[in-house]
């Protein structure tokens, strides 16, 4: 019922139901916390998280930490995020790959790149999600060299590749107008089969356009699925006035 009311935006009723539960388990706590977050309310989840830690019967789990860390990232509340990270370390949840990925993403979005990279390096286990989050953090903080080095390291370790990692790197190349690097990354995307992915292709198009390679951008554009191409064309025409494909 808590989740049902929350999805309907009726947080007053959701809170009343939650408060009436005599023995609240972690699912109940997570439902009310995520309900507030999904309805754009940030202060209440943090207050509830503090109360949850004071509970004698229930402790936050990795889902709780993921919700709160994402909230800290979205609100750029690094101070509270550090406290949550500290709790994760004390409870052993920091070694969980899901929690670790959320921690490094939180620091990156709070413009604390050093802490983000340190959290990534301290993870005992890293998967494709954590690698992609670390690379995205580099792009967000304009750490060009770090982002490229991480990508090379990821590929050397045989982790694989992801849509988000490629898209992040093409945005990075677009931002610094690095055509040579962008072409190398596109060559890698071709080898891994991601070159035809709509999100990756759109990022490639953007990279070529910002590097003043309009013919290359047009070739990529022509290969986009029709629906995506129409949207892309409209956006380009409006924002740059330079595309008239």
Care to count the β-strands? Answer: 0
Biggest β-sheet: count, sense, barrel?
none
Task: Determine the number of helices (DSSP H or I, runs of at least 4 residues).
Answer: 15
* Helical coverage, percent range: over 70%
Low-confidence regions: 231-245
Order of helices and strands: HHHHHHHHHHHHHHH
How far the N terminus sits from the C terminus, by CA atoms, comes to 52 Å
Oligomer: single chain
Rg of Cα set: 21 Å
SS strand fraction: under 5%
Mean pLDDT: 87
Class based on secondary structure composition and strand pairing? mainly alpha
Taken from the alpha-carbon principal axes, the silhouette is elongated
Describe this structure in words.
There is one protein chain. The chain has 245 residues and is mainly α. Helices cover 75% and strands 0% of the residues. It has 15 helices and no strands. The protein has helices at residues 2-7, 11-20, 26-38, 43-54, 62-75, 78-91, 97-109, 113-122, 128-140, 144-156, 163-176, 179-192, 198-210, 214-223, 226-239. The longest helix has 14 residues, at 62-75. It is elongated and about 65 Å long. InterPro entries: PPR_At4g14850-like_plant, PPR_rpt, TPR-like_helical_dom_sf. It comes from Acorus calamus.
């Amino acid at each position: 019922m808590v989740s049902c009311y929350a999805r309907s935006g009726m947080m007053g009723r959701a809170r009343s139901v939650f408060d009436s539960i005599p023995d609240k388990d972690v699912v109940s706590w997570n439902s009310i916390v995520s309900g507030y977050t999904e309805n754009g309310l940030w202060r209440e989840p943090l207050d509830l998280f503090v109360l949850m830690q004071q509970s004698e019967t229930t402790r936050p789990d990795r889902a709780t930490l993921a919700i709160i860390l994402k909230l800290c990232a979205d609100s750029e509340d690094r101070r509270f995020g550090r406290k949550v990270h500290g709790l994760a370390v004390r409870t052993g949840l920091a070694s969980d790959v899901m929690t670790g990925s959320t921690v490094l993403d939180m620091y990156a979005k709070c413009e604390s790149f050093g802490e983000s990279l340190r959290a990534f390096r301290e993870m005992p286990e890293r998967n494709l999600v954590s690698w992609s989050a670390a690379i995205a953090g580099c792009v967000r903080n304009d750490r060009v060299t770090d982002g490229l080095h991480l990508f090379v390291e990821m590929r050397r370790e045989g982790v694989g590749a992801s849509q988000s990692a490629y898209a992040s790197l093409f945005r990075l190349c677009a931002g610094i107008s690095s055509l040579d690097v962008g072409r190398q990354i596109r060559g890698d995307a071709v080898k891994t089969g991601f070159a035809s992915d709509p999100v990756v292709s759109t990022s490639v198009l953007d990279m070529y356009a910002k590097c003043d390679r309009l013919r290359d951008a047009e070739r990529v554009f022509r290969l986009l699925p029709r629906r995506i191409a129409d949207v892309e064309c409209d956006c380009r025409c409006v924002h740059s006035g330079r595309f008239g494909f």
